[in-house]
Amino acid sequence: MVTDEEQIRELIQRWAEAVHAGDMAGVLADHAGDVVMFDVPPPYEGVRGLDAYRETWPGFFQWQAQGASFEIETLDVTAGSDVAFAHALLRCGTPGELAADPGFRLRLTLGLRKEDGRWVVAHEHHSFPIRDQGGAEEEVRKLHQRWYDGTAAKDLDGMMAAIADDIVSYEHETPLQHVGVDAVREVCARGLDAADGGDVTLDIPDLKILVREDLALAWGLNHVRVVGKDGEETDMWSRGTRVFERRDGAWLMVHQHLSFPVDQVTGEARTDLRPSR
Predict the structure, then answer these.
(1) Residue 132: what pLDDT?
(2) Separation CA 71–CA 93 (nearest Å)
(3) Which pLDDT tens digit goes with each residue over 106-161?
């Protein structure tokens, strides 16, 4: 005879397989009409009722179609005569996300009750642990170092590698905004060409980074130094703010804002200023 624990385990496995297949009927099949779910996205008070529960899944199915995994790794079930609960860890993420953090797992808790001799899910709770913010900050800091190294090597492709295709950048020069990675690439190419075969270095000595989940903000004073083939040197400081988003496990710059202070009397940009130490 199949035990209650075995019935519930089979129910949860069927549900997970239906989620991975994008099978809405299978996802809903064993849920109570008054189910309450606390999901990863808002609303924070959860969704209540089978109709509201149904509406949460289409967006997840679209995301999962990118090749994401949804696989039960561990599952524990405890059952009474008419009430039970289960908890599980699932591999849930795109290939890029799981490659960047192989141990990252979705946490699942289910509350079940027996209705007319049949187990149904009355409560469902999904969550992800908060990622290691210190590790994420170090990733963004290393990304900046690759920019420093790429600038010195005049490696334009390397400099563009961590810039999102849909970036919006406020550069020192006109126009008001540069939209898309190709536009930013042109600005960077002109900057390298201006060295006319000399040396170019970029550094942000006072770089500050703030990370919250999949968004990061970085700011500091940009120090650009150009030494021409004739030995003539240009040393310039400006202000920079950059916004990053983690997409498929990799950090990409989605916005940049660069500026020089302006002399309020003459209206001219002050490119001669140096940070006070």
Answers:
(1) 65
(2) 10
(3) 999 999 999 999 999 999 999 988 766 677 898 999 999 999 999 999 999 999 99
Identify any residues that bridge with 155 across adjacent strands, giving them in sequence order: none
The answer for residues whose C-beta is within 8 angstroms of residue 83's C-beta and 6 or more apart is: 111, 112, 113, 114
Q: How many whole angstroms separate alpha carbon 22 and alpha carbon 65?
A: 9
Q: Output the six-digit token pair for 144.
A: 């900046």
Read off the pTM: 0.59
d(CA 127, CA 108): 7
* d(C-alpha 249, C-alpha 210), whole Å: 18
The mean per-residue pLDDT over the stretch 7-17 comes to 97
Is residue 277's pLDDT more than 90?
Answer: no
Domains and CATH numbers, the chain: 4-127 (3.10.450.50), 133-259 (3.10.450.50)
Could you write out the DSSP letters of every residue in 155-173?
-HHHHHTTEEEEEEEE-SS
CA distance linking residue 123 with residue 117, whole number of Å = 18
The phi, psi pair for 155, rounded to 5°, reads -95, 90
The secondary structure of the chain as a DSSP string is: ---HHHHHHHHHHHHHHHHHHT-HHHHHTTEEEEEEEE-SSSPTT-EESHHHHHHTHHHHHHHHTTT-EEEEEEEEEEE-SSEEEEEEEEEEE-HHHHHH-TT--EEEEEEEEEETTEEEEEEEEEE-PPP-HHHHHHHHHHHHHHHHHHHHHT-HHHHHTTEEEEEEEE-SSSSS-EESHHHHHHHHHHHHHTTTTSEEEEE-TT-EEEEETTEEEEEEEEEEEEE-TTS-EEEEEEEEEEEEEEETTEEEEEEEEEE--B-TTT--B--S-----
- Return the higher-pLDDT residue of 250 and 85: 85
